[in-house]
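Listing S7. Sequence submitted for prediction.
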Amino acid sequence: MKITREDVVRVAELAHLELSEAEVGLFRGQLDSILEYVEKLNQLDTANVEPMAGGRPAGVADDPSSALRDDVPWPVAPIDHPEALRAAPDAAPPTAAGGPGFFRVPKVIDR
């Protein structure tokens, strides 16, 4: 499979990346190499390969000697709104009309 310059430019556009011509050429080659490798992997016969989850053979999670711990939530006290705002790098303070204040974040979507 050959990746075209237009493919790279479109993917960069979707990711909101501005690439130089040199970067377009570099990424075109890299993406092409990745897809060629995936094509090789797709040719492998996996009919007799046991399915895996998370890189471990099925059933290992049930093994008591497994290195994974149970997925249980940590007991955490909820943080109150004023405390969260104090920890924020840029926060609007509560308003005189009783508004709670809010987090300010930079604009990320220009299109």
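Caption to Listing S7: primary sequence and predicted structure tokens for the chain studied. Residues 1-45 form a domain with the Histone, subunit A fold (CATH 1.10.20.60). The radius of gyration is 25 Å.
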